[in-house]
Amino acid sequence: MDKKLIALLACPVCKGELKLDREKNELVCFADAMAFPIREGIPVMLAAEARTLTTDERLDKDYRRS
Q1: What is d(CA 10, CA 54) in angstroms, rounded to the nearest whole number?
Q2: Residue 21: its pLDDT value, please?
Q3: Contact assessment for residue 37 and residue 48, using Cβ atoms and an 8 Å cutoff
């Protein structure tokens, strides 16, 4: 995904910053501990489609920097 597009997107729940996880193809909101999938290049910004981050993902400093 384009970095400029990611900078324009916000979490649909808290309106906070999203980080791109290239390996899992997700946009991650650490404030809400949610990961929104990217399907066929399109971010699915629905809370019902998001997955909850694991405790390890929430605490992993390297994961947060991605």
Answers
A1: 21
A2: 92
A3: no
The domains found in the chain, sorted by start residue, are 3-65 (2.20.25.10)
Tell me the C-alpha distance between 18 and 8, whole Å: 9
Distance CA 42, CA 32 (A): 21
Helices (H), the chain: 3-8, 55-59, 61-65
Given a cut of 90, whether residue 9 has pLDDT beyond it is: yes
17-66 per-position pLDDT tens digit: 999 999 999 999 999 999 999 999 999 999 999 999 999 888 886 666 66
What is the C-alpha separation between 38 and 7, in angstroms, rounded?
A: 15
Nearest to 34 by CA among 62, 1, 43: 43
CA distance 53 to 43: 17
